[in-house]
Amino acid sequence: MSISNTPPALSITIATRESRLALWQAEHVKALLEQKGHRVNLLGMTTKGDQILDRSLSKVGGKGLFVKELEVALEEGRADMAVHSLKDVPMDLPDGFVLACVMEREDPRDAWVSSVCASLSELPQGAVVGTSSLRRLVLLREALDALGRADVRIEPLRGNLDTRLRKLDEGQYHAIVLAAAGLKRLGLSGRIRHVFEPADSLPAAGQGALGIEVRADRPDLIQALAPLVHLPTWHRVAAERTVSRAMGGSCSMPLAAYAQWEAAESGQLRLDAAWGDPEGLQGVVRVSEQAPVHDLAQAEALGQRVAEALRAAGAQPPAVGD
Ligand SMILES: NCc1[nH]cc(CCC(=O)O)c1CC(=O)O
């Protein structure tokens, strides 16, 4: 009989989307779990979010487009866990599912990719910039307006990372804006001309962080994932994701929320948020608050305060039923 405290080695199947980025992320988790002695294989799947390439995601609606099919696989026992970009995961998971792990964050910032110009200010007259998110669109528009660049157009850009880069290379855009994290994971950091500081393009809630979802009735998996958890990241993204939930955030709402530790080990979390109205009639609303955070409840309380501050400053969550 063994009296060791080492958790038992498990045989684990990870459900994953089949984009290059999703596969990289699943392989990354696989390698880490294998280092802990588990046996891991991948189950590749295509989700609704991957299939809809002709319409803007903000129109077809809702968070969770990339998540649902993976949850069905967990539900049916075809897979044990799903690795997600947290940015794409709704704050409230369906009943019976939990977020078992948040891993250390990759670069959360937005990146400027272009072969013709190194930054916004160098864009030629009448240039076209591509981006897929309303958040980036609203923040870019604000920055361009500040430069007096009404001539620059911002156009939608869809598809996985490779598709977006191809559209740029074909000349459909002068520049595009993407998450730095995805480019770095795929070894494409060489394509980044400029990373936006959070003050200039405030990141989306959860950007750059990976989360692992399991069924709530699998304590064995939750235990196996414990060594992969990075609590400082978890507290940051919990604060950010609370803002998104409290604002009724979906990809049809331009909303940014970004938390950072004021100083290493200070326990002081600063949370910045920005909201733009989807019609673009109102200016961007920005707020910032900070608080000591030592657990998830405190992180969520900070997120709640920031959401209230956003509303007090004029941000309007969508009407119920919208
Ligand atoms: N919405 C798609 C998506 N989901 C996660 C990432 C990047 C990686 C990450 O944020 O962890 C991207 C691509 C992008 O926004 O450019």
From TrEMBL:
Catalytic reactions on record: 4 porphobilinogen + H2O = hydroxymethylbilane + 4 NH4(+)
GO biological process: protoporphyrinogen IX biosynthetic process
Cofactor note: Binds 1 dipyrromethane group covalently.
GO molecular function ontology, one term from the record: hydroxymethylbilane synthase activity
Cofactor: dipyrromethane
Stretches assigned to the Porphobilinogen deaminase N-terminal domain: 12-221
Coiled-coil parts of chain: none
Enzymatic class: transferase
HAMAP family in the record: Porphobil_deam
Family: Belongs to the HMBS family.
Function: Tetrapolymerization of the monopyrrole PBG into the hydroxymethylbilane pre-uroporphyrinogen in several discrete steps.
UniProt name for this protein: Porphobilinogen deaminase
Lineage, highest ranks first: Bacteria, Pseudomonadati, Pseudomonadota, Betaproteobacteria, Burkholderiales
